[in-house]
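This follows on from our talk about sequence and fold. Please put the record directly below this note.
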Amino acid sequence: MKPNLSIFSVVALLAAGVSSAQVTKYVRYSDGGRTSFGVLEGDQIRELDRSPIEGAKPTGKTVALSSVRLLAPVEPSKVIAVGLNYKSHIGNATPAAYPPLFAKLPTCIVGPEADIVYPQGASNVHFEGELVVVIGKKASRVSKAEAPQYIFGVTAGNDVSERNWQRDDLQWFRAKASDTFGPLGPYLVTGLNHNDLLLQTRVNGKVLQKQRTSDLLFDVEDIVSYISQFVTLMPGDVIYTGTPGTTSAMSPGDVVEIEIEGVGILRNKIAASSTDH
């Protein structure tokens, strides 16, 4: 039997500072109304028989990337986010003693090129470009040292936020979890050093956020371990790790791009709300 270095082992090695040239990009896509998973190889997708998190195998079929519609790369049961996790975002405020957490809803997740829709009554919707961690196996009360074993890979995310609702509501239910407020993608990537990647956010081509994930106040392993002390993380769950710098309001017609080194560009257009039901 040939030795097999699992994805979890590769990620653990990376977290320990050991480099690896094996970077894999997974996609979830719609092709003729059928949803599939695949491995991106250049401009071609090699179809898989299931989610890569579930130990997928190639089906033998390939399809051109240009001929399919990319979807969010995972369908999480939980969407957890960390706030105030870059010094550039909190300014002169004192950093928290532990990762400040809140929840979004799985129904807020949309994929690349999907519209971010202003809900009825919204007037101050901001972008928040973030590195997003995808969990690979059930994690409960894991230590920081153990955390890399539970991380499958990373993707790019936009923690869209309605600032007026965030300020005024009892909880951030509307402000953070409205439909389309969780763009994710374009790819789920393994083999990257997630603790040192360049994150950039552009609106209409102008760079408005630019920082490396090495500047996170709580790194990926801290976050995974801390969350798992209270909530059991399941395969496919996602964690938005925080946004750097400042954010600003977007308007219908704007195009926002979240680019993460090694991951790709998550691109979405802002759309006005519709009164149609």
